[in-house]
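Researcher: Next entry in the queue.
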Amino acid sequence: MSVQVERLEHNMVKLTIEVSEDKLAEAMKHSYNKQKNSIRIDGFRKGKVPYAMVERMYGPEIFYDDASDELISSEYPVALEEFGEEVASVPTIDIEQLEKGKPFIFTAEVAVKPPVELGKYENIQIQKIDDTVTEEDIDEAVDKERDSNARIVTVDRAIKEGDTAVIDFTGYMDGEEFEGGKGEGYSLNIGSHSFVDTFEDQLIGHSAGEEVEVNVTFPDDYQSEELAGEPAMFKVVIHEVKERQLPDADDEFAQDVSEFDTLAEYRDSLKEKIAEDKRKQGRIDQEDEALKKIVDNSKMDVPDAMVDTQVRQMMRDLEQNLAQTGISMPMYFQYTGTTEDEVKERFEEQADEQIRTTLVVEAIADAQNIEVSDDEVDEELKKTAEQYDMDPKTLLEVTGDSEKDNIRRELRLRKAIDYVIDNAKQVKSRKKKEDKEESED
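Model: Structure for this entry, 441 residues:
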């Protein structure tokens, strides 16, 4: 095999890969072996038609597709290893020559990781973390916990905003029931706006046992074309009215939701947790702020193919995440009112930003000669084992070299980001400073 490299614009390269005629002949024989049981010629038993006979009857072209796929799959990785540079996109493959008795020649056009001209990355000005916790912050956390521990109880009164009404409903258009407009024992949260138009508002003020006529108009962009923009009437029977009752914020509540005996102790613990959460989020915000400034001050020519490859991965990730919830991609496009092209276009900007940020962080790691030892990789694996209650020794044994390389790379990037933040200039937010001065006045 031989590999010729042609440098193209925008950090693209074209690899011309030539494979010997002997390897092509061998791949064609493999194709014959895969197909021979399905080839039938009078006078021969199934699977016993000789290779030469098949070639005479159908021509060598019958084996070309399988043979070329096999050679591209086997020889392209070898060509990349010989090329020796980091490829950053899926290849665009073109077959240049495919003929029996001649070398097989194909090209692979790929992006390579672009060089980065780093801007200033030391002494970057970033916002100082503010982990101040106010009484309002604590009150909000307590109320959130009260809300999650609320009881749903049936009440004997008229419906009001925030209640849950248990109803039967039947929808009519021009006096006739329409498909999909009927439900029984449905729990409707009043104020959720999950039902069409002013349906929920018209139930307010009515009580259990009442029958109510609700008049609505479906929106013009409603998913059912038959109903879009049309008026309808629903007959509604109200069975129950329920309300959320929040527990009182007292010592008993603190004992129920925490390990503490008093509300005061519980509030103190919340203060510590909120402060820690603010520090964690503050660190994330600092990293985002610093890296954005460095990226904006750096220069690099990111190939479109590199962005396209990242977008493809993001689409695959989206599809897998949706599948875990039982939603297919066509269903997602229908629910969100988007198309595949629109989602890809939205991802393009994110992909470009992610690529530029990663390239900059890698360049900083190179500039600072940052390395990650085997011990550090092993330590990270041990942390993962503890997190998932696994045996560290077993995890170390089953983790392959490629997985360890990925861990090493992530740790190296983390070290580079830590270096940036550790060497940044932290300043107070001007707005927070002004707010403090106003409060002192």
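Model: The first strand starts at residue 2 and ends at 7.
Researcher: Noted, moving on.
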